[in-house]
Amino acid sequence: MEVRISSPQVSSRNTWAASLRCTPPSLRNQSIGIQQATPEISIAYQVLKVYPRGRQVRITCNASQAPPPVTYSLLASRDMQVDKKVMDTHKPASFNINITLKSSPDLLTYFCQAASSLGVHGPSARLQMYWELWAKPVSQVQVDFTLQDRESGPRAEMSCQASSGSPPISYLLVGKNGRVYMQQRPHHGQPANFQLSGMWGWFQCQAENSVSVQSSAFKLVPPVQLPLVPTSVLAGSLFTIAAITCWMVRTRL
């Protein structure tokens, strides 16, 4: 999962008006027509690896409207240059860096700047990596339930993923009785997939990191019966559909 942050677009009309007011009348005709809005530059990041007190992160800088070649600079706190790349195409520049947890969150701020034949583009919005990587609570836990009919028989699966949150994020499959049935800690940006073979009832997904805990709404999982032998796959599938229909009708009564 890549998180993208774009710098706000500056109004070219306001820039032109301010320039016109400050330009002597004799030079105003020369100024009209040469004012150009500097293309915005975006910054995004993706967590590659998670360590106990560090993260390997890929930061991407993109000035999509700047004509190549474009020189991209990744800068940190106090305008310290971390790395630089020259891109001869319209592709964005990517920087892989290792970020270590520090005592001062302000030291973990990164932003992009670019230069082309049009001039300097940026700076971009600033990434507060301490907040993104260590202090961001989990939010909006999404749950998807799928029932697939395969050669080996029907298989139920529940997929869980939080839309945001500092890594690592652990996912728990919890029943309505409070029991934790399964637990996973997938790579950052990837969902947790729980196989529900032989399980049915009400379940919810719980996501937690070092900052907070969030739970999804409970979802009803119908019973799934596997066929006894491969030759009865079709009959087993029909029986499963009928059993699920009857069971769901009974639960609503």
Low-confidence spans: 7-37, 231-236
User: Can you tell me the CATH class of the largest domain?
Assistant: Mainly Beta
Q: Which descriptor suits the 3D outline?
A: elongated
Main pleated-sheet profile: 5 strands, antiparallel
Helix content: 10-25%
Question: Given the helix and strand composition, which structural class is it?
Answer: alpha+beta
Superfamily (CATH H level) name of the largest domain: Immunoglobulins
- Average of per-residue pLDDT values: 78
**Which fold name fills CATH's third level, the topology of the largest domain?**
Immunoglobulin-like
How far the N terminus sits from the C terminus, by CA atoms, comes to 42 Å
> What radius of gyration results from the CA coordinates?
27 Å
CATH architecture of the largest domain: Sandwich
What's the number of helices?
4
Kindly state the number of beta strands. 17
What would you note in describing this structure?
This protein is α+β, with helices and mostly antiparallel strands. The protein is built from four helices and 17 strands. The strands form four sheets. Strands 4, 5, 7, 8 and 9 form a five-stranded antiparallel β-sheet that branches. Strands 12, 13, 15, 16 and 17 form a five-stranded antiparallel β-sheet that branches. A four-stranded antiparallel β-sheet has the order 1-2-3-6, with no helix packed on it.
Q: In summary, what is this structure?
A:
The chain crosses the membrane at residues 228-249. The protein is an alpha+beta fold and 253 residues long. Helices cover 17% and strands 44% of the residues.
